[in-house]
Amino acid sequence: MEKPFWLICVTHMLVEINLLIQVALIPVITREFNLSLLEASLVATVPSFVQLLINIPSGYLADRFSVKHLLFVSMLIEGVSGLLVSQTTSFWTLVLGISMLKISSPLYHISGLSQVGKLSKPEHLNRSMGIHNALGSLGSAVGIVSLAIFLSTLGWRWTYLFWGFPILAWGLIILTSPHLQVERRIEKKETNKRDELQKWSLILSSGFLIFLIAIAVREVGATGSSTFMTTYFVNRNLSESTASLIFGLGPFVGIAGSLSGGYLGDRAGARKTLNSTIIGCTASLLILSLVSHVYF
What are the residues whose beta carbons fall under 8 Å from the beta carbon of 215, sequence distance 6 or more? Predict the structure, then answer.
């Protein structure tokens, strides 16, 4: 693997550090700001809507700026937003800070993933994506574990403060690195109406739409269950730090899943691996709906 690939993967790890902290904090925020569960869920929903809206302009920016500058901006937003959240004293400034954090994710993913695709040989693309995603899962796991530690010692705000400075430092490393010199894609090719129709026919094909629906349904189930998982644990008389620690086991399993998914993708093909993954997600959610004991 080349140095640019690892620079991108480490950036992915740092982007994902704050990914699950916001939902793990829901029972803490509910108690601290005296909120209802519905009000506390805004910490998850409002930033997600912000992330959704920023995806299209992020794609536009990725076509016009180099990957180095977009990764730097992503780290800058992530670090500054984390420092802002660490100093918040009201619920709405907390939602604002976390919403700003969510802007960094699409800025990174659209430019970072496209660059991983360019750096990887076609026959090793699945493996490269597996390693890339494993670093992201590692970042999520480290973020949750650090939250559990700070919850039992200095307080949850120190988690964002602790990671804000390394993220900003990595942004400067990315900006000054000579290994991410990528030309801007500013050339425009003339296209006729037939070419445009062919592009839209690919986007609106039945296979691609079925794929999008399957991913969307999976996200509904996974996001809905993970958002209130720590709240469920706390309501079952576990401490907030213990609930966060158990919640952090998911990303650790995700590391193994990413690596094995990349391996299987190279061996069995992306289509079969994706089908197996969706079936596994469905089975996991069904099991979750049936169990009643907290350890199960």
Answer: none
State the first-to-last Cα distance of the chain, in angstroms, to the nearest integer.
39
- Residue-level pLDDT, tens digit, the chain, 296 residues: 578 778 888 888 898 888 888 888 888 888 888 888 788 778 878 888 887 788 777 777 766 777 788 888 888 999 999 899 888 888 888 888 888 888 888 888 877 777 777 777 776 777 778 888 888 888 888 888 888 889 888 888 999 999 999 999 988 988 887 766 554 444 445 555 556 566 666 667 777 788 788 778 877 777 777 777 888 888 878 888 888 878 778 788 888 877 777 777 777 777 788 788 878 878 877 887 787 777 77
The Cα–Cα gap between 53 and 211 comes to 21
Contact call for residues 66 and 186 (beta carbons, < 8 A):
no
**186 is written with which tokens?**
């500013």
Structure tokens at 22: 């916001």
Check: CATH 3.50.50.60 for 3-180+194-290?
no
- Looking at residue 183, its amino acid is E
Taking the CA atoms of 99, 223, 157 and 109 in sequence, report the sign of the dihedral they define. Answer: negative
Give the Cα separation of 95 and 153 in Å (integer). Answer: 24
For the chain, give every domain's residue range.
3-180+194-290
pTM of the predicted protein model = 0.75
